[in-house]
């Protein structure tokens, strides 16, 4: 029996990329004769003809399996569904737009054979992405690293190889706010990385605008860090310290020079400052409470409309 490798591909409106993606994957995996493989395509409620295209492929090639979700659940959930259904001894999540090069898979497998449980691919450069995206991504990974106790590797997406043992561990994490690369790191095991050059998207445009990315970053931070909740404590502590000094200053000043009324501007500044600080910390607390509320509903993560070739 050859070891089975599951390629897990979340797809949302990727019809332009599917044929090229399938060709590349089939080529790379076909060359690895020592392994069997399956390609699990998750149709994440696409509104174009992505589903028809993968159904055609699945008809011809039984290695292509389809999970059709009941609607668009977003990439993290699509990935969750795919990984859950994957039966492979190793599981490799990969994007359908060829931004994660399939040619790298043999190198991932090689590291796995050396005894690593997780082999992730770290981007050296990102082609065809705006400087704003590069800068925000750079900052996000660094802030995340500072705030979270988990060691989330910088410049690393979901593209990686995980052994069955790791996948089982990830599957046991049942939270509904899923920041997948956080979970992948959080489970631990022996992890290593290989560098690669990130391509531009083959066809089509990214479905992540800056608002989505901002929310994705919030998800990452709130899922793995309490630091923002503690922010209020430190802001409060600092302002208390500052006001102590300021009070002393006012007392001394009044002693020396008396107090000719005034004080309106500084009072307004103080009110606005504390108002702002309080609203901000309330907002932070709201982010967490909203997530607690969502988790407490314990809803299923997704619904599958149909499975093909399983
Ligand atoms: N994707 C998905 N559901 C969504 C959005 C995206 O399954 O709601 C898939 C998409 O088809 C692709 C991968 O997630 O395979 C990465 O998406 P995209 O290329 O838009 O993101 P980026 O590369 O810009 O981070
Ligand atoms: Mg992409």
Write up what this structure looks like.
- This protein is α/β, with parallel strands linked by helices.
- The protein folds into two domains: 4-225, Alpha-Beta Complex (Spore Coat Polysaccharide Biosynthesis Protein SpsA, Chain A), CATH 3.90.550; 227-297.
- 51% of the residues lie in helices and 18% in strands.
- The chain is built from ten helices and eight strands.
- It has an eight-stranded mixed sheet with strand order 7-5-6-4-1-2-3-8, sandwiched between helices.
- Helix 9 runs antiparallel to helix 10 (264-296).
- It starts with a strand and ends with a strand.
- The model has no long low-confidence stretch (mean pLDDT 87).
- Residues 95, 97, 99, 201, 206 line the site of magnesium ion (MG).
SSE order, one letter for each helix or strand = EHEHEHEHEHEHHEHHHE
CATH topology of the largest domain: Spore Coat Polysaccharide Biosynthesis Protein SpsA, Chain A
Q: Assign the CATH superfamily of the largest domain.
A: Spore Coat Polysaccharide Biosynthesis Protein SpsA, Chain A
Runs in which pLDDT lies below 50 for 5 or more consecutive residues are: none
Share of residues in strands: 15-25%
Task: Please indicate the count of domains.
Answer: 2
Ligand kinds? uridine-5'-diphosphate, magnesium ion
The number of helices is 10
For the sheet with most strands, the description reads: 8 strands, mixed
N- to C-terminal separation?
Answer: 19 Å
Radius of gyration: 25 Å
The geometry reads as elongated
What strand order characterises the main sheet? Answer: 7-5-6-4-1-2-3-8
Counting helices, strands and paired strands, the structural category is alpha/beta
Helix fraction, binned, reads 40-55%
Overall pLDDT, averaged?
87
């Amino acid at each position: 029996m050859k070891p089975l490798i599951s390629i897990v591909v979340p797809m949302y409106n990727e019809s332009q990329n599917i044929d090229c993606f399938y060709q590349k994957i089939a080529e790379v995996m076909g060359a690895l004769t020592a392994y069997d493989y399956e390609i699990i395509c998750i149709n994440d409620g696409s509104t174009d003809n992505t589903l028809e295209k993968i159904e055609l492929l699945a008809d011809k090639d039984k290695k292509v399996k389809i999970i059709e979700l009941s609607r668009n659940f977003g990439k993290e959930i699509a990935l969750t569904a795919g990984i859950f259904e994957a039966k492979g001894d190793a599981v490799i999540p990969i994007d359908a737009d060829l931004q994660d090069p399939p040619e790298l898979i043999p190198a991932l497998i090689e590291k796995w054979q050396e005894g690593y449980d997780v082999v992730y691919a770290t981007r050296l450069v990102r082609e065809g992405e705006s400087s704003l995206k590069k800068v925000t991504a750079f900052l996000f990974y660094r802030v995340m690293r500072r705030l979270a106790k988990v060691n989330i590797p910088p410049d690393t997406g979901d593209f990686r190889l995980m052994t069955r043992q790791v996948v089982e561990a990830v599957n046991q994490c049942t939270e509904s706010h899923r920041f997948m690369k956080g979970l992948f790191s959080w489970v631990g095991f022996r992890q290593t990385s290989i560098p690669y050059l990130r391509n531009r998207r083959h066809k089509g445009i990214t479905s992540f605008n800056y608002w989505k990315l901002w929310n994705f970053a919030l998800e990452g931070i709130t899922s793995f860090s309490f630091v923002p909740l503690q922010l209020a404590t430190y802001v409060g502590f600092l302002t208390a310290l500052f006001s102590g000094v300021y009070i002393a200053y006012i007392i001394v000043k009044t002693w020396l020079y008396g107090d000719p009324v005034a004080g309106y501007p500084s009072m307004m500044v103080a009110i606005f400052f504390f108002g702002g600080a309080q609203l901000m910390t309330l907002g932070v607390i709201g982010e967490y409470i909203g997530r607690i509320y969502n988790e407490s509903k314990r809803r299923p993560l997704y619904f599958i409309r149909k499975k093909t070739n399983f």
